[in-house]
Design a protein that fits this description.
The protein has 106 residues and is mostly beta strands. The chain is built from one helix and eight strands.
Amino acid sequence: MLQPLPTNCLPVLLTILFLLLELSSAWRLQVNYADGVQIKRHGHHNSHCRKFKKTDAPITSAYFEPSLTADTFVLYHDTKCREEGYKGRKGNNAIPVTQYLSYKVY
């Protein structure tokens, strides 16, 4: 017969469960360009400023799936994430059609 777990194991088990959920929960960002190209980015934690490699076409829309720790993405007009152009949230985002050079997820 199985013995019941001691009560002091519960915090440890909950911590392990939370860490497993955090590791399995990732944000996803799909960016759609005016020329039909789509790029996909993903991560588990907040991103720092990231440059887009594709800069020859304007961005028209984006689809964002948040994670436990990141629920917002921001597109910037410059490569240093200083000139905010658009802030988006979960789901489909119709973005003002213009050129964006970098992004952050937080």
